Amino acid sequence: MIEIANKVYYVGVNDRNKSLFEGLWPLPYGVSYNSYLIDDDKVCLIDTVEVDFFVQFIENLHAVLGDRQIDYLVINHMEPDHSGSLALLKKYYPNIQVIGNKKTFDMMSGFYGIRENTIEVKNGETLELGHHTLQFFMTPMVHWPETMMTLSKGEASILFTGDAFGCFGALNGGFIDKDIDTEGYWLEMVRYYSNIVGKYGIPVQNALKKLAGIHIDYICSTHGPVWHENVEKVVNLYDRMSKYETDPGLVICYGTMYGNTERMAEQIARAASLAGVRNIRLYNVSKTHHSYILQDIFRFRGLIVGAPTYNAGLYHEMDVLLQEVANRDIKNHLIGWFGSYSWASKAVSAIGEWNENHLHFEQVGEPVEMKQALTPEIKEECARLGREMAAKLLAE
């Protein structure tokens, strides 16, 4: 097993077989379920793993402990990919005491019927293990109501963060950022945050305020690498995302049936590029999984959306995407929109209603509406929308 620092061990597992995380989000690079073991006078386990990986998990624990017992299990997050091994774990370690908060135990009772051998902790309280002192921080709604973080203070300051600071992607041999190529994990962290945590910007900010001023040598999340060399970069990234801060750039996403609406999107993108915008992402909402589109909407300030009218309403996949954007309570964006129809107009007005009633983004330019096919006049209207968005982005 990998020792992180002064007898704190990584005992997690990799899942390279699951295709959709939570049945929703693609996992082209897999995902890790991270668990950590503190081997001290009192042995403490931090979170468990997905129950399907219990055999490997128990082998990892035995590799560190042999026949020694585990005294405590800290549950920072009750989601079953982290608490799922709890019932089986108690068969191997029947006297283990579970540490959590009141909401932890409400969920633990509901999920697993476990109510005994618990220790309830509150914000700021501590627990001595011997050479390590644990301190607990309540961080509700990052991203469930019971979530908390645990700081281990000893020779190194190690923060166990639950799903916060996590990312998609299995770990390929190494576990700590200093030992691996982390390049592929950064966008997967943004995709993880934007799709799973993104709605909870204010709770994330509240959590960061509780941690302000604390020196952290290692961040140990429940998904992704252990962060050591990049602790400051990881915290800053979460700070920016939870404030809905963006980079200058433009996401254009569209629905299309026969290519006519797509041609409008291409005209808009070309005009924005000629006007000086370099970061442009163009997405067909029916082809690209929405998790990647949401990832880039979180990253970039500008958004232009367009779709055809379908069944006297808005094209289905665009309707779904706008619902997903609204659900995440994204702020500080510019928006323009366009649409098309064959005999009855609805798409353009429907997108406008989404923005007025739910998104509340700053509108840029006039919406462009096309009947049936692209004409020279519609081309110019599309180009104007692209130029106006570019001017706004570049002026900022």
From TrEMBL:
Family annotation (CDD domains): flavodiiron_proteins_MBL-fold (cd07709)
Query: Which SMART domains does UniProt cross-reference here?
Result: Lactamase_B
Q: Which PROSITE patterns match?
A: FLAVODOXIN_LIKE
Which Pfam family is one of those matched by this entry?
Flavodoxin_1
The family database entries (InterPro entries) matched by this protein are listed as: Flavodoxin/NO_synth, Flavoprotein-like_sf, Metallo-B-lactamas, ODP_dom, RibonucZ/Hydroxyglut_hydro, Rubredoxin-O_OxRdtase
Matching entries from SUPFAM superfamilies are given as: Flavoproteins (SSF52218), Metallo-hydrolase/oxidoreductase (SSF56281)
Q: Which GO terms describe its molecular function?
A: electron transfer activity; FMN binding; metal ion binding; oxidoreductase activity
Q: Which residue ranges does the record assign to the Flavodoxin-like domain? A: 250-390
The UniProt family comment states:
In the N-terminal section; belongs to the zinc metallo-hydrolase group 3 family.
What is the protein's given name?
Flavodoxin-like domain-containing protein
Q: Which organism is it from?
A: Prevotella histicola F0411
